[in-house]
Amino acid sequence: MTETETRPAIPASLASRPVKGGLAQPWANVELADGGVDFRTAHHTRYAECWKQCLCQSCGNPTGDPAVLICGPRQVLNRRFDEPPTCPPCALYVSKACPMVNGHTEVYPSRPRVSEGHRGEKCTDPGCNCGGWVETDPEHSADQGGQAALPWYACWIHPEDYTVTAHWTKTRCTDLGCEHDRLIVNGAILNAPPLKVFLVSEPGAGRIWRKLTEDEAWQHATQALGGTNG
Length: 230
Description:
The chain has 6 helices and 11 strands. It is α+β, with helices and mostly antiparallel strands. It has one domain (26-224). A 4-stranded antiparallel β-sheet has the order 5-7-10-11. The protein has a 3-stranded antiparallel β-sheet with strand order 6-9-8. The chain has a two-stranded antiparallel ribbon with strand order 1-2. The N and C termini lie far apart (40 Å).
């Protein structure tokens, strides 16, 4: 199978983003010096901008109305989201291009993130947009390495229907080593039911992309978590 057969077409919404390995590189992820990104690590400044301005995490442009939240079963049930919004064209692209979201990956990777290795050159300014990056939120950097994957969903929403959430964390200066309390955006709470919900994928089954009723989405998400709402 050739790369062109395994990589989906890049939509016009991502035309300005760099392409590496046949994939458009998302705007809100940590950029690497070689032109790629760390798909498992968000650039916290851009992450916060996505939530506060309803920017698409993939292309960096305003999502428009509606926006789409790609999420797991817990988010469907409790309406607390951590993945920033996407615009509809980018949501469709992600549902095909990302091996985690399209259901081809059954276990979250446990290997170190690429930004922690030799490709992740560091910069002293956590707010910059260069290829380097500094960890500013240890709480948000934890991932689910080694855990079994769960289904993915796509929730269409009005941008005005969510409230941004944040938490306090201690960050260390890179030069002096002193610590400061800092308020960090960590997601959003949806204040109204989604306009519509699609089942994007199930681990091992691959991409499904099927519209669910509100009751079907609730039941499916509950079953995915073993019959609980946690």
